[in-house]
Amino acid sequence: MTNSMATFMLPNLVPASAEIFVLAMVSLILIVDLFDKDPKRSSAYLLSLGTMVGAGLITVAVGGNSPTTTFSNMFVSDALADVLKLMVYGSMFVLLVYSRSTLGPRDLLKGEFYTLSLFAMLGMMVMISANHFLTVYLGLELLTLSLYALVALQRDSAAASEAAMKYFVLGALASGMLLYGMSMIYGATGTLDINQISMATQSAAVNHTVLVFGLVFLVSGIAFKLGAVPFHMWVPDVYHGAPTAVTLIIASAPKFAAFAMMMRLLVGSLIDLAVDWQQMLTVLSVLSLAIGNITAIAQTNIKRMLAYSTIGHMGFMLLGMLAGVIEGNRLSAFNAYSSSMFYVAVYVLTTLGSFGMILLLSRAGFEADTLEDFKGLNTRSPWFAFLMLLIMFSLAGVPPTVGFYAKLSVLQAVVDAGQVWLAVVAVMFSLIGAFYYLRVVKLMYFDEPKDLSPITPNFDMSVVLSINGLAVLGLGILPGPLMTVCKIAMVKSLAL
Question: Which of 186, 230, 462, 475 is paired with 273 by a 20 to 30 Å CA distance?
Answer without folding.
Answer: 230
